[in-house]
């Protein structure tokens, strides 16, 4: 697997939230709107069990961990993209054996906040909550999309406490703030 540019190639977890410049990275994803959250495991299984092979057939290869990108806050449904960062843009639609369609997309470039979650996936919501508080306390404003990269590959043999998931959120650009003055 080819290394990805910073911040996606961090060999060590981000133990505290930080703001970094992220490059735009092409992705190959299953993109769905209003997808029921209770079906997330079937979406992940139906995508990741076939996606690398489907991409290899068209000469494209994953260059990083699996990613789930959200276009809005998921509640009972989500608008999301599930796939991999890839070494070249996908320009055609691929159909997986699970009948999910794969299209080209991107992880956005720009200023992003990042932190790592260490542990079972059940603790992700708590880490996201603390992460968003840290971002606000630092005077930053999150914007959509936000995404998770599953750095550790889950398997029956992996200790859930050893799983690493990196969390990212696009931030609003920093502009010069002008103090309000008299209207002329």
From TrEMBL:
It comes from the Bacteria. Gene3D superfamilies: Regulatory factor, effector binding domain. InterPro entries: AraC_E-bd, Reg_factor_effector_dom_sf. Residues 15-172 form the AraC effector-binding domain. SMART domains: AraC_E_bind. This is Transcriptional regulator. The lineage of its organism: Bacteria, Bacillati, Actinomycetota, Actinomycetes, Micrococcales.
């Amino acid at each position: 697997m080819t290394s990805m540019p910073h911040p996606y190639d961090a060999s060590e977890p981000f133990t505290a939230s930080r703001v970094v410049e992220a490059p735009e990275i092409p992705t190959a994803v299953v993109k769905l709107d209003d997808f029921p959250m209770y079906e997330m495991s079937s979406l992940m299984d139906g995508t990741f069990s076939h996606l690398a092979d489907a991409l290899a057939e068209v000469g494209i290869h994953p260059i990083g961990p699996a990613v789930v990108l959200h276009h809005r806050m998921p509640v009972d449904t989500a608008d999301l993209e599930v796939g991999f960062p890839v070494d070249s843009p996908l320009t055609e639609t691929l159909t997986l054996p699970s009948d999910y369609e794969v299209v080209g997309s991107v992880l956005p470039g720009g200023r992003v906040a990042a932190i790592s979650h260490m542990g079972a996936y059940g603790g992700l919501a708590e880490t996201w909550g603390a992460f968003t508080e840290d971002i606000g306390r630092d005077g930053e404003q999150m914007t959509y999309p936000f995404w998770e990269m599953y750095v550790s590959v889950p398997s029956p043999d992996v200790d859930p406490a050893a799983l690493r998931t990196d969390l990212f959120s696009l931030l609003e650009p920093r502009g010069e703030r002008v103090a309000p003055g008299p209207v002329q």
